[in-house]
Amino acid sequence: MTNLGKQKNPKELSPSKFRKNKVGLGAVNRRWAIISLVPVAGLLFIFLALPAMYSIWLSFNKWPGIGTTKFVGTQNYETLFEEGRLAESIRITLLYTFTTSFLIVGIALLLAFAVSSNMKGSRFFRVVWFFPGVAPPAAVAIFWSLGFQPDIGVVNSVMGLFGLPSDTQWLAESATVMGPVIFAGIWIGVGFAFLVLLGAVEGIDVSLREASMIDGASRRQQLTQIVIPLIGPVLFTILTLQLIWNFNGFNLVFAMTDGGPGRSSEILPIFTYIEAFRFGRFGTASAAAVIGAIFLLILGWLGIRMSRSRQLD
Amino acid sequence: MIVTSKSRWWAIAASLPITALVLAGCAVETTPEATTTMESSAPTEEPVTLVVQFEVPEDSPAARGWKAVADVFEDMYPNVTIELSGITNEAKGGPNLQVLTSNGAPDIGLIPLNSNVYTQMLRAGELVPLNDVFEADNFPDRLGPASAALLQADGNYYAAPNTAAYYNVVYTNPAVLKAAGVTIPANRVFESPAALIEAGKKCSAAGFAGLAFGGGTNYMSGWMFDAGLATAVPSEDFTNYISNWKSNVDITADYTAPGVEAVLDALESYANAGLYQSGYLAQDGPASEALFTTGGACMLLSGSWLPGGVFTTATESGEMSFEPSFAVLPPVNNVGAPSRLQPYYGNAYGIPMQSKNHAWAKKLLQYYISDAGQLLGQVEAAGVLPAVTTVDISASDSFSPLLKEIVAYVAEYGSNPGWTSELPGALGQIYIVPLIQQLQEGRITSAEIGVLMQAELVKFRAEG
């Protein structure tokens, strides 16, 4: 709809008159766009920029959760690096994040390729494989915590059937605790990645895959030489999202292990939570959160960069 | 697209209230000074709704106790409505701090005395003094020695415990113990860590878990440290261990002392000998309780709240088909006091400064801790021990014989203060439990924990 009040319809104005009035279609649109963005920008500023700035500021202060803050400079960061707990937490976080994310994307890609290749029962699997993705993380955590219990858990029972060790105390030993956590993370994360990648795989021109089949390409060759290169941008986008989500994967890990035993599954979000809410050290918790945010920014930047370069290719 | 100037202004006008609402939501909270005026005002006859926190689950003894008290209080004061607001065990010692100091604070908050929540609220002046509530029915005298720890340096009381609990109770399944060939000593105290380990081994050989306990919780390993510490160090040292976190108390007992190391060594030996159930480091209290109530374990480590809680419900549901008895953890060595149960008065209630109905909240809290309120709420409705000593529980039908036995045992033998229930959580159980878990896995030594504990104590005192 076009109406400039008392002005003439732009279509009726000659270009010279239009310039003279300095009221162009683009100028009005721009002004209106800026005005329309104000509430959204305000909300983003209040709910995103302000908390982030406050968190950075808090990381240079000592604050027990209430009352006044006390500026301590870089002391919180120094404490974190001196004690070594943060370094260990980052190591665990990176292990969890990269293992879970790469396996999620890898498995989801294989599933998407299989379903898009019209394998037997693909309609059924198209729905079933997405189901775990809609389950609440806390429920998944309880489900798999029981599944990995040494005496009553289904995992040890199944392993026993195959003659494998069936007395492993999966969640109770620091050497094994990350296994179940990563497994549950993959179980809950594959569904969404599968759905996105399936859309991308099915978006590939059918004739390309048919032509390759006529040329004698195996399924593996189809996957590695046609599908993966063509869905590269989507693949990198979903990988970046998975890395970010798993890096921040508090709910599942906290509900399964509480960071234990003995801090052996204390990923960075759990570390931050414990520092803030159990020890009342919001300053060091904020410093840990800032360090985590820097990691995420680097991850995000790399992901976007790789996704763009793939798009250009 | 071009929009009419009129509709543009409508759009701008429409966005203003949204922005205003957001800004209002983020507005600075009411200051404590602004609300303290409410404290002095007397209860009015106007309709008032009091929000009271309790620890979930919904059928917990705390919930049953508050419901019973609330019903009677609402009958006494028809203008008062009481809403119960459940919080989790995890939340009460940490995130609840933000709730209690917000302008949406409940009228009566659940504040564990050994938590960071209590420490920080005291420091920030975010709790309403309860001296008038305490003095009204002479609560300190009725409470007994436990009241001393409640009195703060400024001469005020800020939190009122509602129940006394004893922890480190080793519940036993007599039939299973008999089948395993284990005999509990007449005084109920295992003679030594070796005797407890031996009992556990016999249970394992008979196909049962030895001692079930929630090793994955962030407090139960700390309890066992409590039980041993009082027995392993001279009493004057123990007194210093439970008070030297205060900056005005000199440090005369060091955590690198042999007694502390001996306690930790005992905990390590329990783990190495397979005393606990399989996978205990990943199990919480309810999981270990379920193992015991279904007959899978000889013994269970827990507290005096089980007979009126889990044991009752498990028996009613048919899950538990035996009458449990109880024993006491062994002394680590005979340097300190004899091994006893530990009392806990920690789940106290206070009135946040930010709450809106101080006068009515005080009135409700006063009733809650009165003899009548304690009898109704704790003894009859919840089936747990009252905080006060002036309620006669011997004739109560609400208590199981087992709980009466525990009370009689404590009356005869006494109790030892618990290190984790006396120390602020950030220095006590929150700090030591992950270290004990590492010890039980063989990833750290007792001596190393002692050094870390001493350093943490110095740091805690320095930070005030």
Task: Give an overview in words.
Chain A is mostly helical. Chain A has 2 domains: 2-41; 75-312, MetI-like fold (Orthogonal Bundle). In chain A, 70% of the residues lie in helices and 1% in strands. Chain A contains 14 helices and 2 strands. Chain A has helices at 15-21, 25-58, 75-83, 85-116, 122-128, 137-147, 154-161, 178-202, 206-214, 219-230, 232-247, 250-257, 268-278, 282-312, and strands at residues 61-62, 70-71. In chain A, strands 1-2 form a two-stranded antiparallel ribbon. Chain A is flat, with a radius of gyration of 26 Å. The two termini of chain A are 40 Å apart. Mean pLDDT of chain A is 88; it is low at 1-8. Chain B is an alpha+beta fold. Chain B has 21 helices and 10 strands. Chain B has helices spanning 5-25, 32-40, 61-76, 89-92, 96-100, 116-123, 131-136, 139-143, 174-180, 193-205, 220-232, 235-241, 258-272, 285-293, 310-316, 358-369, 371-382, 401-413, 419-422, 429-440, 446-463, and strands at residues 48-55, 80-87, 109-112, 160-161, 165-172, 209-212, 297-303, 325-328, 342-344, 347-350. In chain B, strands 5, 6, 7, 8 and 9 form a 5-stranded mixed beta sheet that branches. A 3-stranded antiparallel beta sheet of chain B has the order 3-10-4. In chain B, helix 3 links the parallel strand 1 and strand 2 (80-87). In chain B, helix 16 (358-369) crosses helix 17 (371-382). Chain B starts with a helix and ends with a helix. At the A-B interface, helix 2 and helix 13 of A face helix 1, helix 6 and helix 20 of B.
